[in-house]
Amino acid sequence: MINSGKKLMTGLAGLLFCCLVAVSCYATDFFPETIEMNVLTDLYGGVVFDHDLHVMITEGCAVCHHHTTGTPVVDSYCAKCHADEGPVETVSCQGCHTLEPVTAQSMREQRDVYRYHDDKPDLKAAYHLSCLGCHMEFGAPAGCQDCHARTEAGDAFFRSGQFAPAGSAVGPAH
Amino acid sequence: MSKITRRKFLAGSVAGSAAIAMAPTKKAFGANLEGFPDGMGVLVDLTRCVGCRSCEAACNKEQKLPEPDKSFDDFSVFDERPHGEHRRPTEKTYTVVNRYDQTKTEPVYRKIQCNHCNEPACLTSCFVNAYKKTPEGAVIYNDKVCVGCRNCMIACPFNIPAFSYSSALNPIIKKCIFCYDTRLKDGQVPACVESCPQQVMLFGKRKELIRVAHARIRRSPGKYVDHLYGENEVGGTGWLYLSAVPFKEAGFNVSLPNEPIINNVKDFLAIVPMVLAIWPALFTGFHLLSTKGKSHGHGEGHSHEEQEEH
Amino acid sequence: MKKLAENGIQPHDAEMKSDGRKWSLMEKLLLGLTLDQYLQQVVRNKFNWLLALIFAIGIPLIVYRFIFGLGSVTHSSYDYPWGLLLGFGLFCMVPLSASGFMLGTSVELFGRHDFEPIERLALLNGLLGYLFAVVYLLVDLGQPWRLAYPMVYSFGPAAVLFLVGWHVATYLSVQLAEVSTAFFEWIGFRRGYEFIRKGTVGLTVAGVILSTLHQGALGALFVYAPGKVHPLWYSASFQWIHFFVSSIPAGLCMVICVSTVVIYTMKWRCDQRFIDNLDRITISLAKGAAMGLITYLFIKFLAVAHDNEWAYLTTGWGLWWLIEIGFGVILPLILLSIGIHHKNVNLCRIGALVTVLGVLLNRLNTSLITFNWHLYQEVPHILEVIISITIFAIYIMTYRFILNRLPILYQFKSRADA
């Protein structure tokens, strides 16, 4: 089932990668109000990300966008090379973070091109690591279903809702 | 390499001792104990784990395990303390995530499953050779020969193997097999690793994972404890752990030796062929010395009276 | 039986009846009594009532365990995979059965024929102890019908348990052969008897080898669990020799205990040679046990020194260790020494009982009590306790059944003697 889910995801990804314009923001003063993140849906539905809101409440673009937006770099690791760089062409998450799960092998194969980008998480992890870290730190909603609704496949996977084990209380919202 | 030779010699001499009664077949030498150079492993970065239990759900589905007691999105399991301890893998769950509350920082979550040792204690303790360390790095077992002696549960330094006590007719050892049958042998990522939203786990060759892990420690000074758990513990494990808090605080056993468990037993295994070789001559010699020149009434029926009283 | 003996009834003890006819097998089984007499004495014996009570509860439980699995009678602990059934049944029964090879070695190899009156009791004690250790094992194994797998089907020769399995199996055969001489006498199969007697030295040497190795191997099984067994009870280098050396006083003292029970409850079955020699032999066995104990005491401290574990002695576990050593080794050593010095047989017997209890405590400490000292303490399930008691009761019954019949405590009067 997970394999078929994976194929489904890959197929969806190919389709959506073409359809969805990889959010094109070449200048720091131009960005979309919302971003629909739905290239990885399987157990959960997509997320409509309120970009506007996050722009207002975060300290700067670099909190999420590393060095790509041309704003002052926050992460000291990125700053070693990219401290004084202008914006780059690709700023969307999926522009750099791959849909394919990262393994040590895939990391090795990419190392020659991006020498210091060799421990880069895949897209799913990039989203979650980026979002959840702040959400938990600042007490923002951090439950799974606070951001994306779980699908029926997800209910079955987690043995929750209608698939909850007999005799157990239905688990709290995830 | 000398280690391997010695171990093979040991296994051989022990087998030789068994041969006194009956010669074992070639299969007796099948135990493959040396680490495989291209063995796979998983690097677990505890700083990323948020305790969502997706890996538990994925394992349950992949391994077709029985229905859990509670939904996998029920976080009350983190407060369960069976026997006053954190949860551990059981016959129904090959992996569990536990929460370890910290005094100074946020709680730490840790996934527990078989660590797939380079020199597994379970394997070396199994008297029917049910366990096998595959070249891919998995420690798997043959449930067709498991006698249910549970010696592997005694031997496992991580308390991983469970036993299906509830079964009357076919109770066997149950543990994580690295998704060997369904994934690993085809080079695929294990189900739990794939399911993780936070990429807590990185799948790859153990050798490479060690490099990645040390690079992470170097790159983020102060973020991690400067130790890769499993790099050396009990001879090295396929699953490796990075942590921000001291490993003891995350429930790890930090008193394990760096030597494989089997090394402790070698002292004894070494004396086995010696006893077998020396005792017969020694005791027959004692016998001859003690009874020299005395009548010895064997074959005389009930002849105790004929023998001298000392 | 005592009352019957007072009434002048002679139990079966010779190949021929006094009138020169052969005893039939049925008569032999009934000890030479009529069926009525036999049943009367069975019912009269209060101990049989206790056994009956234990069996009435325990035997159905054993059946229950095989129908519903181990989980139905144990706590199904993953952390304590070996419970009371093995902690007591295997790890205690085996050292208490070391008597077979000790006395066999003394009599047959070292020519100490002064021990002969008790040799067969010691051999039987060994055989039955091992046999019932295997019975406990069969009840505890998940798949007892696969017990022979390590012998014939799938070999794990580098595992300590493989050695234990092989050695216990071969040693059981050796002991069976050693005890079979008594059986052949009893059944009247002289050629079998003579055939086995010819191989005595070989069998005894095999017995010493196998005993050295598997008594030690039982200790080595716990060497797989550093960190689980408390360091004071764990010694990578010396565990096997601790188990082996302590099995020597354990086996000798078990024979003293059994012979004491026998002389008080089954005197009718003992012949004059056994009765006359028992006090002297008890003192001699006590000497051997005391030597074993003092060696054991020394190497126990040697292990603490070797691994530099002195600091543990000041902890609670250290106190428990000192209690075990004090009660199980030093106290019996004192009792036995005084008993030997003053030729006080009863003191030696008390010392022997304490030694046996001390070895039991050591084995239970290693396998159950200090095992997982970092974790919680497993308390065996009540049903597991009952099953353990039941198997022990079957052991006692079998022991008595054989002692009553085979020429263990008495010398069989063959046709030539009559």
Going across the major beta sheet of chain B, what is the strand order?
A: 8-1-9
Mean pLDDT of chain C: 87
- Tally of distinct domains of chain C: 1
Strand content of chain B: 5-15%
Q: Biggest sheet of chain C, in brief?
A: none
What is the number of beta strands of chain C? Answer: 0
- Unreliable residue runs of chain B: 1-34, 295-310
The level-1 CATH class of chain B: Alpha Beta
| Overall helicity of chain B | 25-40%
**Number of distinct helices of chain C:** 17
Number of domains of chain B: 1
Provide an overview of this structure.
The complex is a heterotrimer of chains A (174), B (310) and C (418). Chain A has 174 residues and is mainly alpha-helical. Chain A has helices at residues 2-19, 51-57, 62-65, 76-82, 93-96, 104-110, 123-137, 144-147, 152-158, and strands spanning 34-37, 47-50. Chain A is globular, with a radius of gyration of 18 Å. Chain A starts with a helix and ends in a 16-residue tail after the last helix. With 310 residues, chain B is α+β, with helices and mostly antiparallel strands. Chain B has one domain (2-263): Alpha-Beta Plaits, CATH 3.30.70.20. Chain B has 7 helices and 9 strands; from the N terminus they run αβαββαββαββαβαβα. In chain B, the strands form 4 sheets. Chain B has a 3-stranded mixed β-sheet. Chain B has a two-stranded antiparallel ribbon with strand order 2-3. In chain B, helix 1 crosses helix 7. Mean pLDDT of chain B is 83; it is low at 1-34 and 295-310. Chain C is mainly alpha-helical. Chain C has one domain (84-405): Formate dehydrogenase/DMSO reductase fold, CATH 1.20.1630. Chain C is built from 17 helices and no strands. Chain C has helices at residues 2-6, 25-29, 35-44, 46-68, 84-87, 93-96, 99-109, 116-140, 149-152, 160-187, 190-198, 200-221, 239-265, 272-306, 316-341, 345-369, 382-405. Chain C is globular, with a radius of gyration of 22 Å. The interface between B and C is large, with 90 and 82 residues.
